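Inverse folding, one chain.
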C-alpha cells in the first residue's frame, strides 16, 4: 500500500484523525484515548489553560509537543478581537507554532460559526503569518473565500458541536470537498464510527472530533473505533466504489453452462 499522508501547510501526518482534549473525566483518560486513537494533531482550547495558578495542571502537562502536534484553537471567542488575541497567545505558549484552529462563534448555545467575523479574523491572522485551519459552516461561498484568503485547511461542521447527528447536509459538504483545493477536515457533529467513515468515503481529507470519544461509555474503545473507521473510510474512498445502479445479478449470466 502506498504511503498516504495528510499534508497541511508544510507538514505531513500519517493519521487522518484529529482529536480534541476536552470533556474527559480527567487528563489521564484524555491522554490514553488520544494515544489509542493514533491521532497526531491534538487540539487544545487556549481558554482552558489557567495561567493564574502556577500549581494547577493543564492538558499541556500531559501531552508532549515532542509526540503530538498541538493545535491551539480559539474556542470561546465571539468576536474578531478575542479570536486574534487567543491565536497570538496560543502561538506564544507553543514557542512560535504557526498552526492555529480559528473559531469565532455566534453564541454559547449553538456554538455555530459566525462567518462574517470568521472571515475577518482569518484575513488578519493570515497576514500575520499564521497557518489558519478554520472552523466554518458548510456555506460554499464562505469556504471558497476562506481558501482564497490563504487558509491552509477548511473545516466545515457536519452538525452542531456535541450533537452527534452526523453529516446532516451531505450535498453541501460534498460540494466543498469537490471544489476546495486545501485539505477539507470534517469538524463537529460526528457521533459514531459510521459517521467518521462516511465523511472519509465522501473524500474528506480528515475528521476532527472530541465529544464522540470523550462522552462515550468507553472512551478508550471508542477512540480505537474512530481510528479504524477513518482508516477504513479513507481506504474505501481511494479504492473507488462501484457506481450506484438498479438491482442486477451479482454474478454474470452469460457463459453459463446449461444442464
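Residues assigned per position:
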Amino acid at each position: 500500500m502506498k504511503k498516504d499522508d495528510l499534508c497541511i501547510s508544510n507538514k505531513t501526518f500519517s493519521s487522518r484523525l484529529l482529536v480534541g482534549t476536552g470533556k474527559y473525566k480527567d487528563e489521564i483518560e484524555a491522554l490514553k484515548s488520544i494515544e489509542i486513537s493514533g491521532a497526531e494533531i491534538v487540539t487544545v482550547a487556549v481558554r482552558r489553560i489557567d495561567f493564574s495558578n502556577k500549581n494547577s495542571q493543564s492538558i499541556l502537562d500531559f501531552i508532549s509537543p515532542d509526540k503530538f502536534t498541538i493545535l491551539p484553537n480559539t474556542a470561546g471567542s465571539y468576536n474578531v478581537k478575542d479570536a486574534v488575541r487567543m491565536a497570538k497567545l496560543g502561538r506564544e505558549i507553543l514557542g512560535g507554532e504557526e498552526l492555529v484552529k480559528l473559531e469565532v462563534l455566534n453564541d454559547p448555545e449553538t456554538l455555530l460559526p459566525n462567518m462574517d467575523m470568521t472571515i475577518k479574523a482569518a484575513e488578519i491572522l493570515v497576514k500575520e503569518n499564521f497557518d489558519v485551519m478554520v472552523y466554518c459552516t458548510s456555506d460554499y461561498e464562505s469556504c471558497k473565500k476562506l481558501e482564497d484568503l490563504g487558509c491552509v485547511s477548511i473545516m466545515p461542521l457536519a452538525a452542531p458541536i456535541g450533537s452527534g447527528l452526523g453529516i446532516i447536509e451531505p450535498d453541501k459538504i460534498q460540494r466543498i470537498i469537490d471544489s476546495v483545493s486545501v485539505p477539507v477536515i470534517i469538524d463537529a457533529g460526528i457521533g459514531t464510527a459510521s459517521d467518521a467513515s462516511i465523511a472519509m468515503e465522501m473524500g474528506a481529507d480528515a475528521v476532527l472530533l472530541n465529544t464522540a470519544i470523550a462522552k462515550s461509555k468507553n472512551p478508550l474503545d471508542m477512540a480505537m473505533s474512530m481510528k479504524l473507521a477513518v482508516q477504513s473510510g479513507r481506504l474505501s474512498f481511494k479504492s473507488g466504489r462501484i457506481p450506484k445502479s438498479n438491482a442486477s445479478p451479482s454474478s454474470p449470466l452469460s457463459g453459463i453452462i446449461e444442464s
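The beta strands are 6-8, 11-13, 17-19, 41-45, 69-73, 99-102, 131-136, 153-156, 185-187, 206-209. The radius of gyration is 20 Å.
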